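Structure in, sequence out. Go:
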């Protein structure tokens, strides 16, 4: 597999008055195309910062982020917008659904930014929500809203899926369904999946596990025999 993501000497510093927080401290790693990657670490370790930098939602203080040979840290605002639209699918803890659109309309909204037709019903069926297609977000439970947001991210078939605690609001059965879908996208479609989580069990299913502590890489482990999501002991 070829390398699709590279972080080279990445620093991210936040300043508030005299207070300085080094959220990323000389971070270096690579991720290959189609890898299923789990990023582990305690709260405040820098996991979400890493994801936001990779997704073009934040900018580095210094260092390089190279995706598909392109230097993301050099992109201007328009280039970042195109990068996010064409390469990245985001799955956040917060659903960011449009309240006056149905579940189906929220998913098919992605048709505005990709050059192919999206069959929203098929995508909703993949997250077991086809029967809720005509419901609005306020009519859905938190877990159902999360599944709609996941369906929306998956619908545009991005190069990368960046997931911040993607099953945080889900029961264990639905969580397995979603994680199995993400793993299948990695295995069968070559989508690079990066998941930030506190759940160390998920590491057993990852191709690569990156552990972060205090904004630094603590360890990187390649899993030669990752388990299937459905085989994990939850």
């Amino acid at each position: 597999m070829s390398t699709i993501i590279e972080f080279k000497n990445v620093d991210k510093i936040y300043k508030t008055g005299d207070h300085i927080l080094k959220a990323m401290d000389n971070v270096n790693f690579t991720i290959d195309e189609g890898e299923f990657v789990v990023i582990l670490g305690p709260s405040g370790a820098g996991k979400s910062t890493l994801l936001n930098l990779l997704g073009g939602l934040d900018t580095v203080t210094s260092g390089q982020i190279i995706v598909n040979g392109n230097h993301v840290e050099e992109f201007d605002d328009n280039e970042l917008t195109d990068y996010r639209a064409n390469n990245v699918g985001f799955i956040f803890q917060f659903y960011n659904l449009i309240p006056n659109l149905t579940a189906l309309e929220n998913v098919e909204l992605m048709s505005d930014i990709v050059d192919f037709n999206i069959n929203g019903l098929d995508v909703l069926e993949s997250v077991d929500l086809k029967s809720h297609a005509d419901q609005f977000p306020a009519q859905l439970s938190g877990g159902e809203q999360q599944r709609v947001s996941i369906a929306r991210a998956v619908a545009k078939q991005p190069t990368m899926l960046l997931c911040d605690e993607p099953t945080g609001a889900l029961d264990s059965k639905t969580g397995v369904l979603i994680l199995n879908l993400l793993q299948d996208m990695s295995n069968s479609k070559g989508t690079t999946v990066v998941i930030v989580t506190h759940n160390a069990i998920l590491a057993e299913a990852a191709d690569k596990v990156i552990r972060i502590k205090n904004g630094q890489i603590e360890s990187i482990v390649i899993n030669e025999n990752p388990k299937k999501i459905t085989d994990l002991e939850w």
